Amino acid sequence: CRFEYLLQQRGNGRGRRVTMSVALNELKDYVGWESGGQARAESTVLLHVTHSNLQARMFEIRLDRHMSVGTVKEKLRTHTGTGSVFAHLTLLDENQQVVADLCDDSLMLGYFSPLDGYTLHITDLDPHSLSAGGGLEDVNLVKKYEISEEDYLKREDNFRAWKEAKKREDPSWSFAKEIKERQDAQRKKADPSFVPEPWKEVETSEESYKELAERIKVGDRCEVTLGGKRGEVRYVGKIPAIAAGWWVGVQYDEPVGKNDGSITSKLGRTSRFFECPPNYGGFLRPDKLLVGDYPERDIFDEEEEDE
Q: What is the per-residue pLDDT across 153-166, written as a single tens digit (0 to 9) for each?
C-alpha cells in the first residue's frame, strides 16, 4: 500500500520527516474514511456529551449544524433531564479545550464550527436538579423500602413461613438439597435410566474424615473409586479454602486433574499444598479413594490385552 511504500523510501533529515508526515496523514485519511454506509447528511456532526452533575461520559449524539442552540438544548433535555432554561452548553475540542460557549439560543450550531469528535458539555444551573449531588448515579441516596418485623410476619407469603413449612415437611431440608432434587428431576426426565445419588449433608465439622485420613500417608499409591484414576498421595490434611474436614491431595499419573497442587480461595488467595505439573493435581475426601498396590498403568499393555 501507499503507506508501506512511503515508509520504505530512503532518506535522511527533513526529507524523511516530510515523507513520514505524508504517510501518516494518508494512513489517517484511510482509517477515517467513511464508506457512505453510515447514511449521514453532510450537515450533521457527531458530538460527545458530558454533564456537570454526572461522572460518566454519557453518549455520542448526531446533530444537524442547522439546529439552533435552543433546539439542541431541548433535544438534550430528553436525554439528561436538564431543562433548557437551566442548561449552559460549552463546546470542547478533541483535547477538551474550550472552543466556544453557546450562550445565544438563536444562533445555529454550525456557527461555532463543531467537528466530529468534539464534546458538548452541559452545565446544569438548576439548584434543585435531580442529578445534583449524585442524585442520578449514587444508589446510596435512593430511599430503600423497609418493613417492620410485625408487618413482615403478618404476610402469609413471607420467606420465613415458606422455610418453616419446608422444614416441617423435611427436617433435613436445605437450599442445596432443594436444588439437587430439582436437578435430579430434570435429568431423570431427560434420561429415565438415571439414578440420582443419595443426598449427603455438607460436612461442617473440622474433624470430619479424620479417622479415614489417618490411615493414608504421603507416598502411598492410590486409585480413585469412581473412574479408576491412579496416582500418588502427596498431601493429607485440612484445606479450609475448600471445606471443613480432612482432604487428600493426589498427583495423578496422567493429566486428568484440575490443578497443580494449589488451591485459590474465593478471595483470590492461592495456597500451595504440593508441587506437580498443571492438570496433574487433585484433592479428594479420604472416602473417595483406595490406597495399596496400584502401580502406574502401562498403556501399551492395555493395547496388547485389547488385541
A: 888 888 888 888 88
Classify residue 222 by its DSSP letter.
E
Bridge partners, 108 (sequence order): 68
Q: Which cell numbers hold the place of 265?
A: 480461595
d(CA 213, CA 236): 7
> Whose CA is closest to 222, among 128, 289, 279, 301?
289
Nearest CA to 45 out of 140, 89, 96, 111 is that of 111
pTM score, whole prediction: 0.40
Between CA 204 and CA 74 the distance in angstroms is: 62
Strands 243-252 and 262-264: unpaired
Residue type present at position 291: V
Q: Which residue has the cell 448515579?
A: 137
3-state secondary structure of 120: strand
The fraction of the chain above a pLDDT of 70, given in percent, is 78
Which grid cell is 90?
460549552
Separation of alpha carbons 99 and 112, rounded Å? 8
| Helix intervals (H) in 196-295 | 210-213
Q: What φ, ψ does residue 239 adopt, rounded to 5°?
A: -135, 85
Per-residue pLDDT of 52-87, as tens digits, reads 887 766 668 899 999 999 999 999 888 777 888 888
The size of the chain, in residues, is 307
Q: How far apart are CA 280 and CA 260, in angstroms?
A: 6
CA atoms within 13 A on the CB side of 204: 1
What letter would DSSP give residue 299?
A: H
